[in-house]
Amino acid sequence: PLGAKIAIGAISAVAMSTILAIYFLGESTPTNEYVLPKVPPSIVNTCSESFIASEGPETCQQICEVAECCDFPIAFDLSCLYGNEALCLEYHASCNILKQT
After folding, report:
1. DSSP line for the chain
2. What is the dihedral of CA 68, 48, 93, 86, to 10 degrees?
3. Quick check: 98 and 57 in contact, CB under 8 A?
4. How far apart, in whole angstroms, are the C-alpha atoms of residue 60 and residue 56?
5. How far apart are CA 5 and CA 20, in angstroms?
6. For residue 61, what are the CA distances in angstroms to 48, 76, 87, 98, 101?
7. What Å distances lie between residue 100 and 5, 12, 16, 57, CA to CA?
8. Of 21-25, 40-44, 57-61, where does mean pLDDT reach its minimum?
9. Of 24-28, 69-73, 74-78, 92-96, where does mean pLDDT reach its minimum?
10. Cβ-contact 75, 100 below 8 angstroms
11. Are 30 and 82 contacting, i.e. CB atoms less than 8 angstroms apart?
12. Which of 24, 29, 22, 33 is nearest to 80 (CA)?
């Protein structure tokens, strides 16, 4: 049936994109050695809903700007994720609020 062929085609496309991603990522180790600064303790307050509601998002944006490179996949030159995985997670925990507003 046609529905089955479409489903198989979609699965094949997803599988192929996964295989290609693994192939290209396996060809070279990321060389970017950017080290993120430690997450400032003030981020919890300045990126809270209440602070942003009363003071605006600018202070949170300034703190989070340094971690924008975490949003790029490791294979991209603009990425700083490689070697900074834990710090990126810490930044994202607080900075994600900026993507919700």
Report:
1. -HHHHHHHHHHHHHHHHHHHHHHHHHH--------PPPPPTTHHHHTSHHHHHHH-SHHHHHHHHTTGGGGS-TTSTT---TT-HHHHHHHHHHHTHHHH-
2. 80
3. yes
4. 8
5. 22
6. 12, 23, 17, 7, 12
7. 38, 34, 32, 11
8. 21-25
9. 24-28
10. no
11. yes
12. 33
| Confidence check: pLDDT of 29 > 80 | no
How much is the pTM?
0.67
Q: How far apart are CA 33 and CA 16, in angstroms?
A: 30
Among 90, 101, 92, 94, residue whose Cα is nearest residue 47: 94
Q: What is the pLDDT of residue 73?
A: 92
Residue 81 vs residues 30, 41, 71, 87, 91: alpha-carbon distances, Å = 10, 21, 8, 9, 11
